[in-house]
Amino acid sequence: MRAASLRLGSQGLTTSYDDHLLIIGDAAGHIDPLTGEGIHTAMMGGQAAADTLLDMRASGDYSKASTVAYQRRWMAKFGHDFHMSTTFAGLIYRYPIIMDAMASEVQRRGDAFMSKWAEIMTNMQPKTYFFRPDVAAQLGFAIVREVFEQKVLGKADKYQLKA
What we know:
The protein is mainly α. It has helices at residues 39-59, 64-79, 81-94, 97-109, 111-121, 133-151, and strands at residues 17-18, 21-22. A hairpin with a 2-residue loop joins strand 1 (17-18) and strand 2 (21-22).
């Protein structure tokens, strides 16, 4: 058996199309770099591929000039979020207190907020939702609150590895 690592956020690919070729799902790197989510993105990518194939069948043109429409479609649906997900993942890796703050905020705000958070983390909503003023301010306050609680009040760090 042979195996390879999964591509995150189309890592390693410059295109997902060529003459008579569409690369879809895990092979195309349709995996969110922040969450590892790939089921919903694979379904959206599959729909983009199906729409492109129907257009190509109707025109009889299976060249690169036609298959490029597939990449444009999936990039418009979810691919634009991959850069932001990579950036967020790097921030959380460097500052794990952000994850503590988000977990505390989800717990504090309840089911409605958790549902919205889940929509974003599964790529049903774009990550740009986090930049809406009403959301960004609340998440900023949550981070400040978490830093204060951990660094001043001594609240336990949920992501501190024990030696």
